[in-house]
């Protein structure tokens, strides 16, 4: 399964608080993935990339991620920080900033 398709399932999960609906979404996801993907996807669903007993940490600070996002989107780091404070999540902030950038570029065409 491509990560984009997985991200759509993750977004569905994020947008529901109903337990039965979450079970339906996960059931649909598990039907579509290959047997060699199940372990990796289960870890990702738990917010991990390895089992709990494996003390893997990336040791990347928020500051470094903010700098990377600002460079990737060619914007000032303070704009990333403001969006991060508003959204509460760097991934969501980066997504919002990328969408804003895409909309601005579309309007310039």
Q: How does this model look, in words?
A:
With 109 residues, this protein is mainly alpha-helical. The chain folds into 2 domains: 3-45, no CATH class; 62-108. It has 6 helices and no strands. It has helices spanning 3-14, 19-32, 38-45, 62-73, 77-87, 90-108. It is globular, with a radius of gyration of 17 Å. The mean pLDDT is 90.
Number of helices: 6
Q: What general outline do the C-alpha atoms trace? A: globular
Helix/strand/pairing category = mainly alpha
Instruction: Summarize the biggest pleated sheet.
Output: none
Radius of gyration: 17 Å
Total DSSP E strands: 0
Order of helices and strands: HHHHHH
Q: What's the helical proportion of residues?
A: 55-70%
Chain-averaged pLDDT: 90
* Low-confidence sequence ranges: none
User: Can you tell me the number of structural domains?
Assistant: 2
Query: Between the first and last Cα atoms, what is the distance in angstroms?
Result: 34 Å
Strand content: under 5%
């Amino acid at each position: 399964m491509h990560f984009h398709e997985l991200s759509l399932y993750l977004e569905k999960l994020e947008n529901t608080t109903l337990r039965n609906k979450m079970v339906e979404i996960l059931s649909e996801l598990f039907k579509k993935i290959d047997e060699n993907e199940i372990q990796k996807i289960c870890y990702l669903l738990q917010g991990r990339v390895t089992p709990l007993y494996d003390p893997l940490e990336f040791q990347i600070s928020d500051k470094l991620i903010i700098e990377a996002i600002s460079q990737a989107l060619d914007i000032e780091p303070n704009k990333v920080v403001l969006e991060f404070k508003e959204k509460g999540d760097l991934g969501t902030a980066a997504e919002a900033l990328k969408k804003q950038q895409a909309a601005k570029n579309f309007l310039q065409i």
